[in-house]
């Protein structure tokens, strides 16, 4: 079963829930590689859902179910969850 992410699941780590949600999204978008890895094909498909960057550096992802805001500051990515910016990074898959 694939995990379908809620905002409360965002913890800034690429763990099993993120990999599972990525696979769910890849399958929904009918991508060739449903592997949980965000590579060229996945980034390319996600690009269709992005707007920005806005004046404050924020980029918005507007998906089928929800909108997520993120930005990059000094090479570090942040995701806005419940009005607060959380660091979003990973150092390994899975």
SSE layout:
Layout: H1 16-28, H2 40-47, E1 50-51, E2 59-62, E3 67-73, E4 76-81, E5 84-88
Antiparallel strand pairs: 1-2, 2-3, 3-4, 4-5
Brief sketch in words of this structure:
This protein has 94 residues and is α+β, with helices and mostly antiparallel strands. It is 22% helix and 26% strand.
Describe the model:
This protein is an alpha+beta fold and 94 residues long. The protein contains two helices and five strands. The protein has helices spanning 16-28, 40-47, and strands at 50-51, 59-62, 67-73, 76-81, 84-88. A five-stranded antiparallel beta sheet has the order 1-2-3-4-5, with no helix packed on it. A hairpin with a 7-residue loop joins strand 1 and strand 2.
N→C terminal distance: 15 Å
What is the number of helical segments per DSSP (H or I, 4+ residues)? 2
Instruction: Let me know the average pLDDT.
Output: 80
Shape: globular
Instruction: Strand order, main sheet: write it out.
Output: 1-2-3-4-5
Q: Rg to the nearest angstrom?
A: 13 Å
Order of helices and strands: HHEEEEE
Spans where pLDDT lies below 50 across 5 or more residues: none
Q: What's the count of strands?
A: 5
Structural class: alpha+beta
Largest pleated sheet: 5 strands, antiparallel
Percent strand: 25-35%
Please bin the fraction of helical residues: 10-25%
Key structural traits:
94 residues, alpha+beta, 5-stranded antiparallel beta sheet, 5 strands, 22% helix
